[in-house]
């Protein structure tokens, strides 16, 4: 009986160790998430790296039918501001996938110098290739003429949740209380806006890339070393029981 319990525990360790980490760059090269759509299984971690400098973005959960509106009960990274000339380390927002049977949609809440979501700064996890695709979601966001009223979300989401806010916040990276610096062009100057207003920051022409960019290898890192250690632990537990 004890042997079976030990085996179950060891297998649980190995299952955790084999979870993949799927990386998504936020704001790197414009008002974009890259890749725009990724595939992830239950237990995998989707790691959002705020790498656009300068920039200020969010990763906020939405519904397919309301691409630029915070989903009730959905996750929200809050605003992460990256200054010009930022050298890192990039703040990271990690979401653990809890339900991989349904697509997860997200967008950027930033309004300055213009609403990022309306330019197509949206993304997805496990979006299908037909029907409610990432292309359809992007087009729906671009078709909006104004940004809906925004409200805050939390770390817990629907289908995916985070255990902590974006971190580390070092070397000028910060989480301002609302929309502010928004430019992703190195030659641009920073501006300050509100969650519903505009900013004096120059307008960026960057828009969301076309295509689904479906990519589970968007830097998937299987913890091979940890798996080996876990397997060794499994053997020692089983044979010592």
Automatic annotation (TrEMBL):
Sequence ranges of Low complexity compositional bias: 176-216
Gene3D superfamilies given in the database record: Cupredoxins - blue copper proteins (2.60.40.420)
InterPro entries given in the database record: Cupredoxin, Ser-rich/MCO-related
Leader peptide range in chain numbering: 1-19
Residue ranges of the region described as Disordered: 152-216
Keyword terms of this UniProt record: Signal
PANTHER family: EXTRACELLULAR SERINE-RICH PROTEIN, SERINE-RICH PROTEIN, PUTATIVE-RELATED-RELATED
Protein name in UniProt: Cupredoxin
